[in-house]
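Margin note from the TA: students keep mixing up input and output lines. Inputs are the sequences; the output is the structure of the whole complex. Example:
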Amino acid sequence: MPNLTRAIEKYIHDLLESEEGTAGASLRGASVSLRRKELAASFGCVPSQINYVLRSRFTPERGFLVESQRGGHGYIRILRIACEEPEEKMNHIEDIVGDSISEPEAHRLLQVLQERGMITVRERLLIEVALRHSDEMGRSDFDLSQHKRNTIQAEMLKRMLRGLVLA
Amino acid sequence: MPNLTRAIEKYIHDLLESEEGTAGASLRGASVSLRRKELAASFGCVPSQINYVLRSRFTPERGFLVESQRGGHGYIRILRIACEEPEEKMNHIEDIVGDSISEPEAHRLLQVLQERGMITVRERLLIEVALRHSDEMGRSDFDLSQHKRNTIQAEMLKRMLRGLVLA
DNA sequence: ATTATTGATTATCCTTGACCATCATTATAA
DNA sequence: TTATAATGATGGTCAAGGATAATCAATAAT
């Protein structure tokens, strides 16, 4: 069993994918509903495993929302957010980056953006080089605190992404 | 065993090389996945040695990206974005950029690179945003001389191009 | 002085299970 | 008939444990 979490993630992704072609899906964004218990049973795992997959993979940062209801007729609904307007997309990114971002956080974010097709692998590389250089200068040439460096890093990252979105 | 690092480096390079022939590799860039623990064991060294090799040899400045995941089913994936060889072309660029470059000079260089199809419009934009931010910080936050700023700019530009233009 | 190597410690990811919360339906009481 | 209480059927939370990988500081080699 090479990775249960990824298998479940892929399954849900495929569901959303097949929902994509549906009428109006591109406007309202795709969505799927499922039973936690059934999905868990079909993968032969404990139900809370589903929560783990949702919490770790279908996050707002990755462009998803999750709704649910308990009790009889309970359900879990996963929605893919469609950020059509460049401005929306930008606001979303600004929120995620924030005023300060660490190197590992930036690294993860860039990986996600690449997986979502928002940047190419070459663009990701360029951004990483720029962030590394900025961080290195801040550390060895100007002796800045880590927080200050993370602030500068966030500013540079946002500017670079803004430029791309508006391009 | 003083050449452990180089041996591991070569091993990973060879893996990437053999991946090169694969379908679509030239488009998406070559990549290999491995287990840190296993690789270390096969070289009879401690696992953190692998991190040293990756940190010192497979950097974005050299055209590589590294992804990893901890925990069960953990892995390390190395992606090569830039091709090898074009040592000559790279030296040429290093010469042109030199130790110091003004913003208009950088601008012209990037335009030429774009016209020659070596970088895309978006990549050029990304580089220009990074250079501008660096320059702006140097001026207003650290009150650096223009020459110092041009030196920093040249360094950043070379690093970004090294990762990319080797193609 | 720089680069390489090691090992101890820390951080992260995944999986499971016990226990908690909420909703819909049904039974019961007024 | 209506209000309320019990019941069953979901989903949520959290903490523990195992499996990796990352970090960092000390040491060795060049």
